[in-house]
Write a structure and sequence with these properties.
Blueprint lengths: L5 H22 L2 H8 L10 E2 L4 E8 L21 E8 L1 E10 H6 L3 H27 L19 H4 L5 E2 L2 E2 L9 E4 L14 H11 L9 E4 L1 H13 L5 E2 L12 E3 L2 E5 L6 E2 L10 E8 L4 E13 L3 E4 L16 E15 L6 E6 L5
Parallel strand pairs: 1-14, 7-17, 8-11
Antiparallel strand pairs: 2-3, 4-16, 5-6, 8-13, 9-10, 10-11, 12-13, 13-17, 14-16, 15-16
Helix pairs in contact: 1-4
Amino acid sequence: MAMINEVDLRNGIISELRPGVRNQVTTACELMERLYYGRGKNARGKTRYRKGSDLNEMLSYGNKRSKETDGREDVVVPHSFSAEKQMVVKYGWRVGDILLHDDDLSSNKTGLQIFNLMATRIKNMTEGMAEDVALALYAGKRLKGANGGSAKAFDGIKEVIGNDNIYGGIDRVAFPWFQSKVVDYVKLAASPADSLISLLKIDAMHGQIKLGRKTMPTLQITSQELWQEIVTSARKERSVIEKDPSLSIERGVDNIVLNGSPVIADINCPMYPSTVAGDPAGTMRGDWYYINEDTIQLFVDPDYDFKVSEWKDVYGTKIGGADNGKTGISVHSRALYVKLAMCLYCNEPRSNGKYVGFTLPTE
């Protein structure tokens, strides 16, 4: 059996392969990339770091007007405290694992062979972790893990931009000032004809969100199909679309700028089968997001920014379909865990909006 220095192997993985894991996971999704790195000329977002299990902030709303007095000696009845709500956003966790089996040590004779084997397993782990993070980012509610639990899951953009859900512990129905602007054709059970995407609707939503310069969306994200339909419609109507070369992406889709903010087609924001009763079979729907990157930020716990754990013993690992049980030591493995703790934080949801359930014209 080959002898291996697990400390050196772990150090090699951290120094040589961990940067690649971070890069692939954080660039697999257009929105994740902009929030993590602050890409694009209009991007304000950039990862912020804060330790802990959650983020807390006291939010105030309502006005506290001044009062008149007749002189410096007058007794003035003090104002009651302005309304306040505590916002608590919990970190969500994604964990990837890299296994090293006893059998690996007998079949790979040199340290280089073992390192190359680990590189393959890290590649597989990274691809899965990148897909999971992209899925979590666009998930509606806290994404449940394989064990069915949701306590360590991640609140996606659908949860952050909403008007009738609970986000950060605040009920948006009870506190309308914490609502985003939302038109949900699915909940309205709107027909495909009434849900058709159009430039008029895109402009209307942008106008309702843009209450002032500071609340203007800095980014619009949608599916490639909806993006293409808007481009086609704009060309037919001879509207002016500004192409911004600095915002082009690698997936072969040029970005456009509408109403001052870039529109990005993200493959992780796909069309989905309609659940509206009465829709014809095969009807697909999609979403369109208006995001203000001044108000939506990605926070990461610096202690768990793709942190690689120490080697952990694992017993009863399944190999080749066989399960030796928790007490079986004939199948013994060690594992490194790559941990990421992050959350989407938005303290001004009204500066963001979305359409849910857009449909496309039929052929």
